[in-house]
Amino acid sequence: MSGAYLPLLLLFGVSILNAVGMVVTSHILNPRRDTPQKLMPYESGMIPLGSTRQRFSVKFYMVAISFIVFDLETIFLIPWAVQVRELGWSVFVAVSLFVVVLAVGLVYEWKKGGLEWG
Fold first, then answer.
1. CB hemisphere CA count around 78 (13 angstroms)
2. Contact (Cβ atoms closer than 8 angstroms) between residue 76 and residue 98
3. Mean pLDDT, consecutive 10-residue segments, the chain of 118 residues?
4. pTM of the predicted protein model
């Protein structure tokens, strides 16, 4: 049984040696020389203005979380849509309930103004 894992362990070992070798080689060939210009934060080629600790509005996070939720809904629905005929009616009812719950959540968020930037 251990002979079956030998190629996997060999690949793992070569991968680790490759990663360590690349890091060591990059430190040897390109030593770090910090300058004030290199240590400055990069802001699209412009000199940064103000604090880098600027706070974002809560609306930004709400829209981001909503995007993630509905993106995950798509990820769950695509495999189901491919196999819908083979899975039967019980899975269809379960997925329909899933979509209805998400739709109710979207309507609730819309009514509360969670999708407005103003």
1. 5
2. yes
3. 84 97 93 81 69 74 82 85 88 91 87 77
4. 0.48
